[in-house]
UniProtKB/TrEMBL annotation:
Protein name, entry field: Anoctamin
Membrane topology (UniProt): Multi-pass membrane protein
Similarity section: Belongs to the anoctamin family.
Taxonomic lineage: Eukaryota, Metazoa, Chordata, Craniata, Vertebrata
Primary location recorded for the protein, binned into one broad class: membrane
Sample GO molecular function, one term: chloride channel activity
GO CC list: plasma membrane
UniProt xrefs under InterPro entries: Anoctamin (IPR007632), Anoctamin_TM (IPR049452)
UniProt entry keywords in alphabetical sequence: Membrane, Transmembrane, Transmembrane helix
Length: 469
């Protein structure tokens, strides 16, 4: 999947360069893009454009920088709110687990009810915070007074993505890399607000991570598809009922359709999905399958929505997909590191491999190898308990713990170097601009120079003729 993500982005660059050349948008942002109407109306002064020589509205860069810093502080505050909700959900799961453990009800003793209900609650919190912050990001980006529409959209997208990245991925990251790491050991358990830190289930954290991903990703997709199917139809149905029995002309009926607000939500949905199927694919190999099924459905829903429920959108030129491409590249690099750490530290792949080559190739006794014995002073009823870890009877780390740590870190370094090296090879082998498009661009550049030279010769001849006359 990591190599697929790198290859996908390389071939997207080729497609993007071909489309921008075909639609004559290769130099749109640098030369042709005009200031936004809102910026023109609110800018406090004007300056001469050094490229075009025309007077254009201007907003001081110092003020914009200060406003951008203020926006960054708001983002940090909102990310802190996300982390507070995450801690609240962790405490909820821990307390509910204690209640279930002390209950004798057969239904409540279901081992997954705490984690599943916590995942559903986390999904609801994520969707609620997303709506609040998107509206806030619109206000902040308008306040920053960006000159062009491309710059405005890039800054708005960046704000929303940073927040959504923390909002959607904080819980899976916690389960993958932090849950069960700071529990302690019998007799010396660590606590959070007086409650013992939660540990992974008997199956390990990888199963819980897969469950969390499926609940958040599939649940988000279902809710979005339902919203896209029902919400656009509601105003339309109200208008139909209102004008039932009246003859309405086609252009009046079209005017009653919803206004298309752009493709931001569509892009954001795909980028968040791209993160789910790449960053955590080692824990949930079914994620790409669910994404594929969702996209089949999404294509038909979007076709229905844009053709029958929305007005025809106003065409806007763009050089490329803007800041979305660097965001996808960031997700791809993050996915390589994330999967390396997932395989090394969260899965049992390396401990099994270590045990196979140092103890028993048949893996006989592997479970006992991964379990430690509680200290003597913790033993109750003259019996000792076992827990997951590589510690001796005094609670100290064993030599096997440090051997495995070295193996894990070595695996991470080798894994990411191999994947990044292959990705670099793909980058070198697949040029960003197709050869056919590059030849067309050279030909157009040559023809432009020839036309300029001919025009210069004609102008000189006309001047000479005027002089003799």
């Amino acid at each position: 999947i990591s190599l697929w993500a790198v290859t996908f982005l390389e071939y997207w660059k080729r497609t993007c360069s071909a489309l921008s050349h075909r639609w004559d948008c290769s130099d749109f942002q640098e030369i042709e893009e005009r200031p936004r109407p809102e910026f023109t109306a609110m800018a406090p002064m004007t300056v001469r454009n050094p490229v075009t020589g025309a007077e254009e509205p201007y907003f001081p860069e110092e003020k914009r920088f200060n406003r951008t810093l203020t926006g960054c502080m708001v983002i940090i505050i909102m990310m802190t709110v996300v982390l507070m909700f995450l801690i609240a959900i962790i405490l909820y799961r821990t307390i509910l687990t204690i209640i279930i453990y002390n209950s004798h009800d057969n239904f409540l003793s279901f081992s997954r009810i705490a984690s599943i209900s916590g995942s559903v609650l986390n999904l609801l919190v994520i969707l609620m915070l997303s709506r609040v912050y998107t509206a806030l990001a619109h206000i902040l980006t308008r306040w920053e007074m960006h000159r062009t529409q491309s710059k405005y959209e890039d800054m708005f997208i960046l704000k929303v993505f940073i927040f959504q990245f923390v909002n959607f991925y904080s819980s899976p990251v916690y389960i993958a890399f932090f849950k069960g790491r700071f529990v302690g050991y019998p007799g010396h358990f660590n606590t959070l607000f007086g409650v013992r830190n939660e540990d992974c289930g008997a199956g390990g954290c990888l199963i819980e991570l897969a469950q969390e991903l499926l609940v958040i990703m599939v649940g988000k997709q279902l809710i979005n598809n339902i919203q896209e199917f029902i919400f656009p139809m509601s105003p339309r149905l109200r208008e139909v009922k209102k004008e039932e029995g009246e003859e309405v002309s086609p252009w009046e009926a079209d005017y009653q359709l919803l206004v298309c607000e752009g493709l931001f939500s569509e892009y954001l949905e795909m980028v968040i999905q791209f993160g789910f199927i790449t960053i955590f694919v080692a824990a949930c190999p079914l994620a790409p399958l669910f994404a594929l099924i969702n996209n089949w459905v999404e294509v038909r829903l979007d076709a229905q929505k844009f053709v029958t429920e929305y007005r025809r959108p106003v065409v806007e030129r763009a050089q490329d997909i803007g800041i979305w491409l660097p965001i996808l590249q960031f997700i791809t690099h993050t996915a390589v590191l994330s999967n390396a750490f997932l395989i090394a530290f969260t899965s049992s792949f390396l401990p099994r491999l270590y045990y196979r080559y140092t103890r028993d190739s048949s893996l006989s006794g592997f479970i006992n190898f991964t379990l430690a014995t509680s200290p003597h002073n913790y033993s109750q009823h003259h019996t000792s308990c076992r827990y997951r870890g590589f510690r001796d009877e005094n609670g100290e780390n064993t030599p096997e713990y440090y051997h495995l740590l070295a193996v894990r870190l070595s695996f991470v370094i080798i894994f990411e170097h191999v994947v990044f090296f292959i990705g670099r090879l793909i980058d070198m082998m697949v040029p960003d601009i197709p050869e056919e498009v590059e030849m067309k661009m050279r030909r157009e550049h040559y023809m432009a120079k020839e036309a300029l030279a001919e025009n210069q010769v004609w102008w000189n001849r006309s001047k000479l003729t005027d002089f003799h006359m």
